[in-house]
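Hi team,

As requested, here is the filled-out complex form for the NAP run. I kept the field names the same as last time so the parser does not choke. Let me know if anything looks off before we queue the next batch.

— J.
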Amino acid sequence: MKALTATADDRLITLAEITDPAPAAGEAVIEVEAFSVNRGDYFALAGVYGTEVVPGHVPGQDVAGRIITAAADGTGPAVGTRVVAHAAGGGWAEQVAVATDAITALPQQLPATIAATLPLAGLTALRLLRRAGAVAGKRLLVTGASGGVGHLVVELAIAAGAIVTAVAATRERGQRLADYGAEVLTDIDAATDRFDIVLESVGGDTFAAALRHLAPGGTVVWFGQASRQPVQLDFFDLFGATPFTLHHFPHWVADTTDAEDLAELVRLAAAGIIHPEVGRIADWTETATVLTDLVHRRIRGNAVLTLA
Ligand SMILES: NC(=O)c1ccc[n+]([C@@H]2O[C@H](COP(=O)([O-])OP(=O)(O)OC[C@H]3O[C@@H](n4cnc5c(N)ncnc54)[C@H](OP(=O)(O)O)[C@@H]3O)[C@@H](O)[C@H]2O)c1
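And here is what came back:
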């Protein structure tokens, strides 16, 4: 089969012929129809995380498609079922083997190009809100809100009753967030309110700027560093918000399986309660260009690649 494999050079990835997946007993094989790419995928391929980039490795977590081999242990969907899945890797390929506790069936009305946005971005958004606690009636600030996670978490938070302020680089990048009902700022310091909860994923100066607008006793959920600039904090700047609670957030620490949370996201998308923002749909041979555009903030929301 064909797959996109890591190159460990400036090309990031290349289309290659590799062997078909060999599923373990608890894995099903999915014929991939569409996949989504994330900022973190670029960071991994560019070696930003400090881990070695292994040439030939097939990246890819967020896939939608159809089951072509059911799991040998009898778990998971039957052959022919349309599904969305959060793969442990290998998803940028014609076929991928995925553990059945990370696969959820799709209703007919949800296209693969929408479903593919739900795994990493959606699971992160859903679990971020759980970590933040009860948000109804709370003032919530979301930084880096024009991205894949940002669009989903803003919509979910508003649906849960939060009063959301979203930070985006421009009005255009924040337009869908405004349509959802968020106040959109292009500069945190323009905020006239204090926030009960901050969801921060930009890093650099943004973290400290968000803290300056935190209400005393507020909560910060720290889940990324899109700018790649480390956070700088001055203890003496924080007295206004003190005492506050800081959660360091990894999406993979959860009491639920990916399949359970994907089922919830699929239900919300199918019911029209969330509307994933797909800023780019392209053929999967254009994945390297799309990744670069995503990282340079030229794509709003998620980017989805399709296979013929
Ligand atoms: N902790 C976890 O488990 C977890 C899971 C998934 C993702 N993440 C992290 O969460 C963040 C959001 O992920 P994502 O997939 O939604 O990414 P994304 O689609 O690329 O969105 C990131 C957003 O950050 C904003 N941003 C602000 N300043 C930036 C800067 N200096 N450089 C680059 N971007 C900047 C951009 O919006 P504007 O251009 O409008 O400012 C961009 O839309 C990333 O940092 C990602 O690594 C963490």
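Two things worth flagging: The first strand starts at residue 2 and ends at 6. The mean pLDDT is 96.

Thanks,
J.
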